[in-house]
Design goal:
Number of strands: 10
CATH class: Mainly Alpha
Distance between the termini: 56 Å
CATH superfamily: Cytochrome P450
Strand order of the largest sheet: 1-2-8-5-3
Shape: globular
CATH topology: Cytochrome p450
Strand content: 5-15%
Order of helices and strands: HHEEHEHHHHEHHHHHHHHEEEEHHEE
Low-confidence stretches: 1-5
Structural class: alpha+beta
Helix content: 40-55%
């Protein structure tokens, strides 16, 4: 058994940690880069080299039950609706099922297909900023008024969700991701279950509508594939991955744009540099992803007994790979606590690596580049309006409660 005292200085519920986790990550990297935390019954891994290696290691995966001939442990009956919409999700599958499902949908997210979306994304950004400029008070919440509607519209259009139904999606998504938080409350669990149930019903209704009147969208294509080759994609997998794409398709962009634009406003010399050299927008977005990573860590399970460094991990061991800590590792990044829009190279792990590398990374990068470019060009006077915004009390996902700006 691991020593239950070794992780006692990791206090994930402390307000100081939630406001700024990076000093704690620095201490863990230096003093205990692979450490057991009793509160989560998991190992915490914080150095870039270790996170990189374990993300690529096929002895770790998201699920363990597919390797166990015995029945999976019983789940709480009141959480059944949530677990049903996770089964079949790319996030939860391992090869060969992961490979089969990914092959059914991956062409929508290829760089070639994503590049074709750039004109539409640019139009959406122009429309959003037009709406801001029409406000006589010249004030807004950058999250609510830009960061949320842009990616939500893009992924909803890709999936074929009608405009009048999109307002439901963001509250459902925020409730569902709460279930992945290790410090969640019973209220968060209940909200996640209700949202998963409602979301699944919504997707099944969309699937029925696409059968009656198919369109040029991802849900229509998945339904057609299931109806012709059901062994390649089940109805449950369509539901699970539609929810995954809607959730993941906007969370990374919303939170990176919020965290990243805050960093840019707090570093005026970097903002001035980027405004003077718009060609740096690509490296600036990569730095936003690295500097204040929206997905702080990703949990894996050990699929077969393995040794990692001085540690023996039996099958089923939980391992939390801290992307945010790895992305500020001084062994890889010079002056890691400095925000530098010119940073090259920038081998951050914000989108993961290996089998579970984010399928939507090319789309997220394009949306972020279009958004940052347009904001700097159209709103040169953009600035914080009032006190610095606080972060949500979350450990897995790091995002602002609000982002008041004036322009």
């Amino acid at each position: 058994m691991p020593d239950p005292t070794t992780g006692t200085r990791f206090r994930p519920a402390d307000p100081e940690f939630l406001a700024d986790p990076y000093p704690t990550y620095a201490r863990l990297r230096a003093e205990a880069p692979v450490v057991w935390y009793e509160g989560w019954q998991a190992w915490l891994v914080t150095r870039h080299a270790d996170v990189d290696a374990l993300l690529r290691d096929r002895r770790l995966g998201r699920m363990i039950h597919h390797l166990d001939p015995s029945p999976p442990p019983p789940q709480r009956p009141e959480h059944a609706a949530f677990h049903q919409v996770q089964e079949g999700s790319l996030l939860e599958l391992e090869p060969p099922a992961h490979t089969r499902v990914k092959q059914a949908v991956q062409d929508v997210f290829t760089p070639r297909h994503v590049r074709a979306l750039q004109p539409r994304i640019e139009v959406l950004m122009e429309d959003l900023i037009d709406a801001l400029e029409a406000r006589p008070e010249r004030r807004a919440d950058l999250l609510r008024d830009v960061a949320e509607p842009l990616p939500l519209t893009v992924i909803a259009e890709l999936l074929g969700v009608p405009e009048g139904e999109r307002s439901l999606l963001l509250p459902w998504s925020r409730a569902i991701i709460g279930m992945f938080e290790p410090e969640r409350t019973p209220a968060m669990e209940s909200a996640a279950v209700r949202a998963a149930d409602a979301f699944a019903t919504f997707v099944r209704e969309r699937m029925a509508a696409k059968r009656r009147c198919p369109g040029d969208d991802l849900i229509s294509r998945m339904v057609a594939l299931h109806d012709t080759e059901p062994a390649r994609l089940s109805e449950g997998e369509i539901v699970a991955n539609t929810i995954l794409f809607l959730n993941a398709g906007h969370e990374a962009v919303v939170n990176t744009l919020g965290n990243g634009m805050l960093a840019l406003l707090q570093h005026p010399e970097q903002r001035a540099l980027l405004a003077a050299e718009p060609g740096l927008v690509g490296s600036a977005v990569e730095e936003m992803l690295r500097f204040d990573t929206p997905l702080q860590f990703f949990e894996r399970r050990v699929l077969e007994p393995m040794r990692f460094g001085a540690h023996e991990w039996p099958r089923g061991t939980r391992v939390c790979l801290f992307y945010a800590a790895a992305n500020r590792d001084p062994a890889v990044f010079a002056e890691p606590d400095r925000f530098d829009v010119r940073r090259q190279p920038n081998p951050h792990v914000a989108f993961g690596l290996g089998v579970h590398y984010c399928i939507g990374a090319p789309l997220a990068r394009l949306e972020l580049q279009c958004a940052v470019r347009a904001l700097l060009r159209r709103l040169p006077g953009l600035r914080l309006d009032g006190p610095l915004p606080g972060y949500q009390p979350r450990n897995v996902f790091r995002y602002l409660q609000a982002f008041p700006v004036a322009y």
